[in-house]
Amino acid sequence: MSSSPLFRLGRLVLLFTMLIASLVSFTSAFTLILGPNEERCFFEELSPGDRMSVTFEVTQGGKLDVDFYLYSPSSNILHQTEKATSETFAFTSSENDSDTPGKNRYRYCFSNRLSSRTRKILSFTVRTDPLSRRNNQNVSRDPQLEAELNELLHGSKAIRESVRYLRVREATHRSTAESSNSRIKYWSIAQLVILLLVVVVQFVFLKRFFEVRRTV
């Protein structure tokens, strides 16, 4: 009875649902606006052995590049990237990163200090994978079930990455369209002003040309 296809399908759906729920609960997505010469920092508390990954992509502004820095709890630079459009960086928290036991408080920053006039808009996601959650996953090892689950997991990741890519491309194209519309609007206004000036000048010259001067 326990090996029936219906039971296996129900078990697979349950495991996949639990996996997706755990991924969603530990993943956060944000949109950030960086002004000229601005730097924004965020903090994340991790226990030794916890995993963390940061993925970002610049969608609007200038050359679509920012600087990214990751600092350890003792304020040492663990990772830095300059003038990056997109990147994914993952690491595992270590006891050596902090001078005090317990939670490690990491700081990651996005910087737009190299730009003096252009603001940048970027989207980033932060994913944490606690060590305690990985140790508590007591799922029985069924090779066929695990293979099917991995296939579904890879498919869901591919769909999620495709959706994120399409959102970024849509934001980039929208920014380009809005910029083009603004330029067309200002150029149309300039053409109208020039046309009015030409009409006024022509009217004045024609009026002087047909004006009859009286001689005494």
From TrEMBL:
Reply yes or no: does the keyword Membrane apply: yes
- InterPro entries per the UniProt record, alphabetical: Emp24-like, GOLD_dom, GOLD_dom_sf
- Pfam families listed in its UniProt record: EMP24_GP25L
> For this UniProt entry, what is the primary localization, expressed as one broad class?
membrane
Concerning SUPFAM superfamilies, the annotation shows: Supernatant protein factor (SPF), C-terminal domain (SSF101576)
Signal peptide segment: 1-29
How does the record say this protein sits in the membrane?
Single-pass membrane protein; Single-pass type I membrane protein
The transmembrane residues are 186-206
Q: Which SMART domains match?
A: EMP24_GP25L
Question: What GO CC annotations are associated with the protein?
Answer: endomembrane system; membrane
Q: Which UniProt keywords apply?
A: Membrane, Signal, Transmembrane, Transmembrane helix
Q: Does the keyword Signal apply?
A: yes
GOLD domain ranges (all copies)? 39-128
Q: What PANTHER family is this protein classified in? A: TRANSMEMBRANE EMP24 DOMAIN-CONTAINING PROTEIN
Q: Which family does it belong to?
A: Belongs to the EMP24/GP25L family.
Identify this protein by name: GOLD domain-containing protein
Source species, please? Fonticula alba (Slime mold)
Provide the taxonomic classification. Eukaryota, Rotosphaerida, Fonticulaceae, Fonticula
